[in-house]
Amino acid sequence: MKNNLRGDTESWVEKVHDTQAKDEKNRKHQGDGHPDKSLPGKQHLDGN
Fold first, then answer.
1. What Cα–Cα distance (Å) separates residue 21 from each residue in 1, 15, 25?
2. How many C-beta neighbours within 10 Å does residue 30 have?
3. What is the predicted pLDDT for the residue at 1?
4. Full-prediction pTM beyond 0.85?
């Protein structure tokens, strides 16, 4: 039973880290509340 709990804890921690990484990426992309710092959503090419 302890092995199962340790595995569950490790998978939970991995999920939390994944969620935090995605959150950080989204904050960077969305400008973290500062629209002038946000990354562009699309690149518009001339002539298309």
1. 30, 10, 6
2. 14
3. 45
4. no
